[in-house]
Design goal:
alpha+beta, Arc Repressor Mutant, subunit A, 3 strands, 60% helix, elongated, DNA-binding transcription factor activity, ArsR-like_HTH, WH_DNA-bd_sf, ArsR family transcriptional regulator, WH-like_DNA-bd_sf
């Protein structure tokens, strides 16, 4: 199954993992310790994030360390930006309408 960034951020657990990894590299056990779910369940989330390119895993000795690749989130930012532009123009038009018609309201 091909995964994309939107699927990755759709889950609150995965968003929390990304947030944790933006501050520091963590090994898989350290990540799992932050959640009240099984380690295999956390590993599934890690796998999805890796498939989407939002995190990378590097082997260091016996441990595997995860780090965030937030550059991939630019795809989400670009998508959101089109709606920010849309809503800003609508709100500006509403403000103008209310300002122009203030005396008749």
């Amino acid at each position: 199954m091909r995964r994309d960034v939107f699927q990755a951020i759709a889950d609150p657990t995965r968003r929390q993992i990304i947030g944790m990894l933006t501050h520091q590299q963590l090994n898989l056990n350290s990540i799992a310790d932050h959640f009240e779910m099984s380690r295999p369940a956390v590993s599934k989330h890690i796998k999805i994030l890796t498939q989407c390119g939002l995190i990378t895993i590097k082997q260091q000795g016996r441990d595997r360390y995860c780090s965030a690749n937030c550059n991939r989130l630019s795809e989400v930012a670009d998508w959101v930006e089109q709606y920010r532009t849309f809503w800003n123009s609508k709100l500006d038009a509403l403000d103008k309408f209310l300002t122009d018609n203030k005396s008749s309201i």
